[in-house]
Specification:
alpha/beta, 7-stranded mixed β-sheet, binds cobalamin, binds iron/sulfur cluster
Length: 502
């Protein structure tokens, strides 16, 4: 055991997210523990991270990063590097798509793509200081050189992996433990290629290296949920895989076994093509309470040609009809402010959501990510300002692009959900969009979203202390005023750059 190491994992979301129990880290923690290493996890929060580093004295600090969180993580890592001696390893979506971060100060190693086999190999090599710079999937900086290694094949059988180490988060952070809504993953990978997503880049990177979409067996998935259910509070299951299932045979088995072994209401994501009377019947039988489904663009041509979503209006209407008839609560995804689209197209979202009284139409304003097709489209149309704030978590507040009718689009985004619920507002919507309500539009949006999510989409009865914390965060924390201030900041930056499109 003497060579065994101490690894401190840092999550990819801030401490305010109740969904910050990062599955990537849970999987890697299980792998590291199996290798005999000591593991803890810390928040993306300086005080906590600093004291953890001081007391735990990690050999490795392993960061999981999304692009929107990379800049603060880079700063935090540099500060830690000034004070402690450790190897920094970066993984997750940002490291996968932007491995050149290896050139930044204090970044020692970057893992691209799926991490379990790669990290396990890296740890074995690093504990013996044996050619760790040659680990597949990794870009490593050593003695002033950068080593760029190829990618290994995707893991064929997700069932062969140890279960994600839920305890890593739940045993340490009481708010994550107390949250009665917990996340699980039934599959890996997505079969679609939406222009606003990195999935296409992922597929290119892994071309010839195995099937992209991999299902877990129903038995393996239920074993994991059962384990968590016996140890921690759990009232509602949230399947966060890009797609719940691929083949109806999987859903058929799931619909028989899930109610017997788990029997809790659940939420999942599926595509409109998958919704038919048979699949809805099976989902209902399984205990599906609510479903997330993408409309994505109000106009079919924009959906097909700009967003690369080959889904007709007819298919979406049919899917919403089936789900409504079955009494399954619906969460739709509606993206406003798409390059090449306009305000009239954005209004069409109401024609999809209103007839079915969709439980919560989640409206967001598009934030194109560099490296995606939709970003190229926005660049082509001169919509990207010079000081573009990419990856800002602003999709619920403002458009980072120089879009036409910006103000109307941003206000509509905040009012779609209340209009769908209180349909008498529809005739006066044009007047509502003209009012100078400022931050109030955002407050209406956020309060209504919080209410419907907690009461209708992911309903549960949390403990009083958890409820209090959520309310406190919502009212006084980042969730409310922070975002409001931050949103204003983003807007100020954008208006100061307006007209400077490339
Ligand atoms: C669940 C989820 C969330 C949850 C929880 C996030 C969390 N704590 O993990 C919530 C709702 C909070 C969320 C929010 C957002 N999300 Co999100 N989310 C996801 C989702 C659907 C699943 C993540 C997951 O658990 N995957 C399963 C695990 C096993 O895979 P993984 O995380 O990739 O980890 C593997 C590898 O990446 C690697 N790895 C990961 N970390 C590390 C670390 C080390 C050291 C190593 C060696 C390897 C390694 O090994 C892991 C195991 O194989 C993904 C899509 C997807 N399918 O991954 C999007 C995704 C991560 N989200 C994305 C985005 C854009 C967002 C938002 C910015 C959206 C928005 N505009 O608001 C916000 C950002 C929130 C914030 N400010 O922090 C993008 C990120 C793109 C990017 N370039 O960063 C993704 C990839 C979706 C997409 N396809 O575009 N998200
Ligand atoms: S369905 Fe989701 S995960 Fe799949 S390509 Fe589209 S945006 Fe990406």
């Amino acid at each position: 055991m003497e060579n065994k190491m101490k690894i401190l994992f840092v999550t990819n979301t801030t401490k305010y997210f109740s969904t910050r129990a990062t599955h990537g880290i849970m999987y890697l923690s299980a792998i590291a523990k199996n290798g005999g290493h000591q593991v803890i996890t810390s928040d993306l929060n300086m005080d906590n991270l600093f004291s953890d580093t001081e007391s735990f004295k990690p050999d490795i600090i392993a960061y999981s990063v999304m692009s929107c969180n990379y800049p603060p993580v880079q700063t935090i890592n540099s500060k830690l590097k000034e004070n402690f001696d450790f190897l920094s390893v970066f993984g997750g979506p940002h490291a996968t798509y932007f491995p050149e971060i290896i050139n930044n100060d204090g970044v020692d190693a970057v893992c691209r793509g799926e991490g379990e086999l790669a990290f396990s190999d890296f740890l074995k090599r690093y504990e013996k200081r044996n050619n760790y710079e040659k680990t597949k999937n990794f870009w490593v900086k050593k003695d002033g050189n950068v080593y760029k290694n190829p990618i290994r094949p995707l893991i064929k059988e997700i069932d062969s992996l140890p279960f994600p180490d839920h305890g890593l988060f739940y045993d340490r952070f009481w708010d994550l433990r107390e949250n009665p809504v917990k996340v699980f993953h039934s599959s890996r990978g997505c079969p679609l290629n939406c222009a606003y997503c990195h999935n296409e880049a992922f597929k290119k990177m892994y071309k010839g290296l195995g099937a992209i979409v991999r299902m877990r067996s129903v038995e393996n998935l239920l074993d994991e949920i059962e384990l968590v259910y016996t140890r921690y509070p759990l009232q509602f299951v949230r399947f966060f895989s890009d797609i719940l299932y691929l083949k109806e045979s999987w859903l058929f088995e799931f619909s028989k076994e899930y109610p017997k072994r788990i029997g809790l209401p659940f939420w999942c994501l599926i595509t409109p093509h998958q919704v038919n009377s048979r699949s809805v019947e099976l989902l209902k039988k399984a205990g599906c309470w609510s479903i997330g489904i993408g409309i994505e663009a109000g106009d079919e041509q924009i959906r097909r040609n700009i967003l690369n979503r080959p889904v007709s209006d007819k298919i979406i209407h049919a899917a919403l009809g089936h789900l409504t008839d079955a009494g399954i609560k619906i969460l739709t995804y509606n993206i406003l402010g798409i390059p090449g689209s306009n305000f009239e197209n954005d209004l069409k979202f109401l024609d999809f959501n209103m007839p079915y009284h969709v439980t919560y139409p989640m409206a967001t304003v598009l934030t194109p990510f560099p490296g995606t097709k939709v970003f190229e489209e926005a660049e082509k149309r001169n919509l990207i300002p010079e000081n573009y704030i990419s990856y800002d978590n602003s999709m619920m507040r403002v458009s980072p692009m120089n879009i036409k009718d910006r103000e109307k689009v941003e206000k509509l985004q905040k009012l779609i959900a209340v209009t769908v619920r209180f349909q008498f507002l529809r005739p006066i919507l044009p007047s509502l969009l003209k009012l100078p309500l400022g931050g109030l539009y955002w407050v209406i949006f956020k309060v209504w979203m919080g209410y419907v999510f907690s009461q209708n989409i992911f309903p549960s009865k949390p403990s009083f202390s958890f409820l209090l914390l959520t309310a406190k965060r919502f009212l006084f924390g980042f969730e409310a005023w922070g975002i409001l201030k931050e949103g204003k900041m983003v807007k100020d930056k954008i208006s100061s750059s307006a007209g400077s499109g490339k």
